[in-house]
Specification:
Chains A, B: InterPro entries: ACOT8-like_C, Acyl-CoA_hotdog, HotDog_dom_sf, Sec_Metab_Biosynth-Assoc, TesB_ACOT8-like_N. 2 copies of one chain form a homodimer. Chain A is mainly β and 267 residues long. The first copy, chain A, has helices at 4-7, 35-48, 145-148, 188-191, and strands at 10-12, 18-23, 28-29, 32-33, 54-62, 69-81, 84-93, 96-106, 115-116, 130-131, 149-153, 170-177, 210-217, 226-236, 239-247, 253-262. Strand 9 (115-116) of chain A pairs antiparallel with strand 14 (226-236) of chain B.
C-alpha cells in the first residue's frame, strides 16, 4: 500500500489523451488529497502524451478537492517540438474540474550549475531530526501522507508544537518515500509540498490550502533522501506565499517550488 | 500611443467568454510581444468573466509568440464562489495556441502584512538611476517596450554594458508607465517581467525566453513609480529561474513573480 508508482498509475481512456487515475486515500492530509500527489499524477499523464519524460516546470490551480477514487486526467498539447513540449492537464472527478496544470516538459539535463544564488538548507543529520507521525499530537486530524512519505523535521524550529513558534517562517526536513523507492522528477512534486504548512512556525493555526503552485524540476535526483526547506515570503490579507527547495543526497538543488496559500490569521 | 488601458482593451466575441485584443506593437522586445503585457491582457479577460476584479495569482505557459494584431482571448471559469474565482485563459492567434494562464481572482485587500520575510530592494533614488532607451547601445535590437515603460536601472550592477558583468545575479530598477497612469494589479504584470534578463548580469548574452511565469499580486499599489528587483536563482542546463519583487512608492511589497526561462550558456 502507498507505493508511489501504483498510486499514480494511469489507465488509458475514456478518449484520446485521457487517462483514469485511482486516487489513493493514503496520499491525504486530514482526509484531503495531497496537492503534490495530485500534481504528480497529472504530470505523469503529460509525460504519456508526447516524447518528453520529464517536467521542467509545472504550474497548477487547485479548484475543488477531489475525493479518493477514480478521476479523469485529460492532456492537451499546446506546443510540441524544439526540444520541449508544453501541455495543459486537467483533473476532473464526476464532471467537476478539480485542478488544472500547465507544464513544460523536456529532457532533464544533469549539468552542474553555471551559477547559483541559492544557499543549501542547513539541517541536522537525518537521524537527529524528528519523524512526523500520521497521528501528530495536537493536529486534530490524521495525516495519512506521513505513512507513505517518511519526513524527519529539523527539531530547532519546532517550538510551535509546544505553542511557542520560532516566527522565523522556515520549516525544513528530510524526506524519503516509505516504499523504499528513490525520488524522481515526478515524486519530487510531493516532496515540494510538505506538511505542516510553514504558517505553523508563524503562530498561525489551521490549514493553509494551496490556491496556486508552481514547481521547477532542475536535475534528476540522486538516490537517497532529499532535504526540503520551506520558507514563508509575505503573509498578508489571508494569503501567504511559500518557497520550497529540495536538495538531493549529493547536496545538489534538484527542485524548487512556490505556492500561494490561503491562511486564516489570528484575530 | 502605448496607453496601457487601450493596449489591453478587449472587445467581446466571437462567442461567450471570448474576447478579441488588438496586440499593440509598442509592447514588444526585439519585435516579440512582451510576456507581461500578454498576461495583463489575459488577466483583464479573466476579470471580465466573474465578479472579481483583481488577480491574486497568475501562472502562465508561453508556447508560441504571437504577432502584433488581433488575437482571441478565451476564459473558462473552473470554480466560482467562496470569495474567489479560479479561471483558465487562453490566447490564440489564427487558431494557434500562443499562451495559457491559470488565475485565482478575488478582492485584493490592502492589509499591512502580518509577517514578512522579504527584504526591500536597495536602490538609489530614481533620478540617480539610468533610463533604459528603446535603442539600447549594443543590444542589437529595438526594445519598443522602453518607450511605454520608463525604466531606470540601478547603475551599480550595469557593468555588463561594458562587458564586465557583476555576476551578482541581480538587476533592479524603477518603473513608471510612460502614459502617466498609475500602476494597478494588471499593469504590474508588465513590471514583473523586466528587461534586460538578469542573465546579462551573469555574463550570459542573448535573449532568455520565458517558458513559464507565475505572479502573485499582494496589494493594490500606491500611486507613483514601483521599484522592481530581479534576482537569478540557479542557472543550469540551459534553464534559469528568476525571482522578481515589486515595491510601491510607499515601500510596500505589492507583487512577486518567478519564471523559468531558457538561456544559451557561453561555450
Amino acid at each position: 500500500m502507498g507505493n508511489f508508482q501504483e498510486a499514480t498509475a494511469l489507465t488509458r481512456g475514456p478518449g484520446a489523451d485521457v487517462f483514469t487515475v485511482d486516487l489513493d486515500p493514503q496520499w491525504t492530509v486530514g482526509g484531503r488529497m495531497h496537492g503534490g500527489y495530485l500534481l504528480a499524477a497529472m504530470a505523469r499523464a503529460a509525460t504519456e502524451v508526447g516524447p518528453h519524460a520529464h517536467p521542467h516546470a509545472v504550474s497548477a490551480s487547485f479548484a475543488v478537492p477531489p475525493q479518493a477514487g477514480p478521476a479523469q486526467v485529460s492532456v492537451e498539447v499546446l506546443r510540441a517540438g524544439n526540444g520541449l513540449t508544453q501541455s495543459r492537464v486537467r483533473l476532473d472527478q464526476d464532471g467537476t474540474p478539480c485542478a488544472e496544470a500547465l507544464l513544460t516538459l523536456g529532457p532533464l539535463a544533469d549539468d552542474e550549475p553555471y551559477w547559483s544564488g541559492v544557499t543549501p538548507a542547513d539541517l541536522p543529520p537525518e537521524h537527529e531530526c524528528v519523524r512526523v507521525p500520521a497521528e501528530a499530537p495536537g493536529a486534530g486530524f490524521r495525516v495519512d501522507l506521513m505513512d507513505v512519505v517518511e519526513q524527519r523535521l529539523d527539531p530547532r524550529p519546532l517550538g510551535f508544537l509546544g505553542g511557542t513558534p520560532s516566527r522565523r517562517g522556515e520549516i525544513s526536513g528530510w524526506q524519503r518515500l516509505a516504499d523504499g523507492s528513490d525520488w524522481d522528477p515526478l515524486s519530487l512534486l510531493v516532496a515540494l509540498d510538505p506538511v505542516p504548512p510553514v504558517s505553523y512556525d508563524l503562530g498561525i493555526p489551521g490549514w493553509a490550502p494551496t490556491l496556486q503552485f508552481s514547481a521547477y524540476l532542475r536535475r534528476p535526483p540522486a538516490p537517497g533522501p532529499v532535504r526540503v526547506r520551506m520558507r514563508a515570503g509575505v503573509v498578508a490579507g489571508d494569503r501567504m506565499d511559500e518557497i520550497a527547495e529540495a536538495w538531493d543526497s549529493k547536496d545538489r538543488l534538484v527542485a524548487q517550488a512556490t505556492q500561494l496559500a490561503g491562511v486564516r490569521l489570528p484575530a
